[in-house]
Amino acid sequence: MTVGASTLDAVRTLTPAIREHADSIERERRLPQAVVSGLIDAGVFRMLVPRSLGGDEIDPMSACRVVEAVATQDGAVGWCAMIGARNGHFSGLLPAEGARQVFADRNCVLAGTFRATGVAEAADGGYRIMGRWPFASGIMHASWLIGGCRVMDGASPRLTPAGAPVVKLMFLPRAEGHVLDTWHTGGLRGTGSHDFEVKDVFVPASRSLRFADPPVERGPLYSFPAISLFATLIASVSLGIARHALEALKELAGVKKPTWSPDLLRARPVQGGGSAARRPRPPIRRAAGNYPKNGLFITTTLCRRTMASGPATSC
Fold it and tell me: By percentage, how much of the chain surpasses pLDDT 90?
């Protein structure tokens, strides 16, 4: 059994715990520790961490399958699983010293925001940062934070050779940031995607990176663009939520009788006139038919990218 398959099997065993805590996830706007611990023990947050740092370094498609499986159980849990797993990918992009510092703890989970709403003033050996960042999903169970910053040399922004502002991601312990209670929503409440702020904290250069920097790790996983991987994992959350919706509707159709009908919803014939061949498919069947097509699109895209980046893995 591959590492990806064992992680997939492990997250499927979390279904009872996730369902048990579903109400508290919505009410408390965060994941309970029992669910977080289950994700950690399953290896979700270390799927994309390199083997040199004790991670699993699995291929992107296997990671997508794991995220989709978690999202099928609960959308908020799936989103937090995706964020934590995605941020583990930075372990192969950070300078080696910083990566060891952040990922030495096998239980570490990262949350934060890419957007450059912070400022990093160049200092001896690193940067002094300050700012406020929105939508830090999973911050309530995170141990490290990520914040995008515009780099300043004194009063002037540092520029690239093309004249654009230099933006770097800064990695700092959660204790050095302050969480602001801003996440009051109707959907994905359990992600706890609050804002956070930082006031004059030093970050060593080894705990900073630019997306344009070459990867430190040599495996093909780390030549995969971070933003592209992020987008693909987000799509996997959507597929999982869609699968959950289909399963919930099938369950409902087995017990619900529509108004003015003696039959269960599942017994209703296809609506519409004309021959069966010309009748439009009902929405639920169209959705069920589109679901594997969307999954196939992700699979094909990832496999092409993985093979272009290096040896093919489990495509």
Answer: 75
CB 115 within 8 A of CB 146: no
Task: Outline where the chain has alpha helix (H).
Answer: 3-12, 15-20, 22-28, 33-42, 60-73, 75-88, 96-103, 226-253, 283-309
Residue 200 main-chain phi, psi, to 5 deg? 55, 65
Q: Is 112 helix (H, G, I), strand (E, B) or coil?
A: strand
Q: Would you tell me how many other CB atoms lie within 10 Å of the CB of residue 80? A: 35
Percent of the chain as helix, strand, coil, to the nearest 5: 50, 20, 30
Q: Tokens in use for 133?
A: 């960042």
* DSSP 8-state class, residue 261: -
Residue type for position 251: E
Global pTM value: 0.87
Closest CA to 45 of 2, 86, 73, 97: 86
Residue 114 pLDDT grade (very low, low, confident, very high; cuts 50, 70, 90):
very high
Per-residue confidence (pLDDT) for residue 262, from 0 to 100: 86
